[in-house]
Design goal:
Blueprint: H1 2-19, H2 22-57, E1 61-79, E2 94-110, E3 117-133, E4 138-140, E5 150-152, E6 157-174, E7 179-197, E8 222-236, E9 239-250, E10 273-290
Antiparallel strand pairs: 1-2, 1-10, 2-3, 3-6, 4-5, 6-7, 7-8, 8-9, 9-10
């Protein structure tokens, strides 16, 4: 009986897929291919980080360990491939914070003939991501018909999500003497540990605006993305100080979506593009280990 039921279900799904418009099937296929591409990028970046570690372990090197913290402007890009979504693109910035522990391993071998060297940077951070959505003024009809149309302005909605972040980055650095300059490129894995959300706006006052926010029963707790930074560090008798500017973008997306919970053959109207982005500055205090003799 179960076998026959499964066959019937598979046959029904095949009929539904065959009746989908070709454009819809192509878009679904592109979305799946995009997700596979992101997974391949993460896999190769991890392999590259491992190779850098192996290379550094066999060479003369210097390591740093310390603490860092700072602030960033965070925002989100929320959209749907198939359905129109009436929200700002991207959302407004919200100022958030981060702090954590960082470990840097520097290789003395030159990558080029111009004094550029390679290294690896990893860490564990507490970081807030989020966004602010501003709503347009809407004309709301007075149900009593005594005042006529009135203007209602909703307060902006702010969402802050708290993550534990685990970045892995390759470093290229250059310079001689006390101060060095560097750039990093890598990936991060993150785990959602909490949220701070404003009260949901009154949907009757939204007018033509759409509204989406984090929902624990629907959305992802685990994510991954890419990170890019530029900075400088300087050695002193009491330790090392580092200044870094960075940007990060999520590849995995925040909102849960798909066809499994849809009432019909199409996708749910939940946005399939929910990208979190941050741009910030970080200060670090580091303790060095090893020699820096160039």
């Amino acid at each position: 009986m179960c076998f026959m039921a499964n066959l019937s279900l598979l046959g029904f799904c095949a009929v539904i897929r065959s009746k989908m418009p070709i454009s819809l099937r192509l878009r679904i296929r592109r979305m799946r291919e995009k997700r596979k591409t992101h997974e391949r990028v993460v896999r190769w970046l991890l392999i590259g980080a491992l190779l850098l570690t192996i290379q550094g372990a066999s060479a003369q090197s210097r390591s740093y360990i310390g603490v860092r913290g700072g602030a960033q402007g965070s925002t989100a890009f929320i959209n749907h491939t198939l359905f129109p979504v009436n929200v700002p693109q991207p959302m407004s910035l919200v100022v958030t914070q981060h702090y954590g522990v960082v470990f840097k391993h520097f290789n003395f071998r030159r990558v080029t003939g111009r004094g550029v060297h390679a290294g690896l940077q990893v860490g564990v951070n507490y970081i807030q991501r989020g966004w602010k959505q501003a709503f347009n003024s809407q004309l709301i009809d007075d149900p009593t018909d005594t005042l006529g149309p009135v203007v209602s302005q909703l307060e902006p909605y702010t969402a802050r999500l708290n993550y534990l972040e685990f970045p892995v980055e390759g470093i290229l650095y250059w310079g001689k003497g006390q101060t060095k300059f560097f750039g990093t490129l890598g990936i991060y894995y993150e785990r959602l540990i909490g949220s701070d959300l404003d009260e949901r706006p009154d949907e009757e006052l939204l007018g033509r605006d759409d509204f989406f926010t984090y929902e624990p029963d629907r959305d992802r707790e685990n994510g991954y993305g890419g990170r890019l930074s530029l900075g400088a560090f300087s050695d002193f008798s009491f330790g090392t100080l580092q200044l870094e500017v960075f940007s990060s973008i999520s590849f995995s997306g925040l909102f849960g979506f798909g066809t499994r919970n849809a009432p019909g053959p199409g996708l749910t109207p939940i946005p399939d593009q929910s990208v979190l982005m941050s741009f910030g500055v970080s200060m670090a205090y580091l303790l060095p280990f090893g020699k820096m003799d160039f």
